[in-house]
Design goal:
Strand order of the largest sheet: 5-4-6-7-10-9
Structural class: alpha/beta
Strand content: 15-25%
Helix content: 10-25%
Length: about 230
């Protein structure tokens, strides 16, 4: 395989992420510091190419199958939240903000943000009791920037709920269904999320191989500014 030279990790800035795997379309690198697997920067789609692919997604908020899929995240999330009303933000809500609608039906006050479908950045200038990101982290081109943004949106004592497939079995990576989507460019593992939690002083909880909750401690200092 004609793998490309090492690159800087887009999550932790470690300068020596090395080629890990290559298929017919893309090269993937893995960071030795935070364990993130990411697509070679030369292989990233342009914003217009991304949008074209996202427009093909069928995320109908009224579709019972889609609601059932999101229910596997919604149930453990609400089990960990104080009763409504609580303020939340669904980050990366997509063309059909089903999760936000389902949370609102339960009495939560939820805003949405998506760079393509709900790009009003005004919602990024406040803090929330909880932030959700379902099937979103794998799309991050600049995961350090997006992670820092998310951290600034959560109140002390709040939580970040993430749904993304955790890549813990490196040998199985080439056969992961996540690789079949060209908009999937960042691949996280428990090790990566534990690294982030340690860096931020967060508690982290894993539920199965797709759901992760990060808890920000009460009275956490140094997060007065919101972008």
């Amino acid at each position: 395989m004609d793998l490309q030279p090492k690159q800087t990790c887009p999550l932790c800035d470690h300068p020596e992420s090395r080629p890990f795997y290559q298929d017919k379309q893309r090269t993937y690198l893995r960071c030795s510091e935070c364990s993130l697997i990411f697509v070679d920067r030369q292989d990233l789609l342009s914003p217009s190419e991304e949008k074209t692919r996202y427009d093909l997604h069928e995320n109908d908020p009224q579709d019972s199958g889609y609601r059932q899929f999101l229910g596997q995240f919604l149930t453990p999330l609400t089990d960990r939240l104080a009763p409504p009303p609580r303020s939340g933000l669904d980050f990366g809500s997509g063309p059909g903000p089903a999760l936000a609608i389902m949370l609102k039906e339960l009495g939560y006050a939820v805003e949405i943000y998506d760079p393509f479908y709900a790009p009003d950045s005004a919602v990024l200038h406040t803090k929330y009791d909880f932030v959700t990101a379902t099937e979103t982290f794998e799309h991050f081109h600049h995961p350090k920037k997006e992670w820092q943004l998310l951290m600034g949106l959560i109140k002390p004592g709040g939580l970040l709920g993430v749904m993304t497939l955790l890549i813990d079995d490196l040998a199985a990576f080439p056969s992961s269904h996540y690789l079949t989507d060209a908009t999937h460019v960042s691949f996280f593992s428990r090790q990566t999320f534990q690294y982030l939690a340690q860096q931020e002083g967060l508690k982290v909880e894993f539920i199965g191989d797709k759901i992760t909750f990060f808890y920000k401690p009460e009275g956490m200092q140094g997060d007065e500014d919101v972008r």
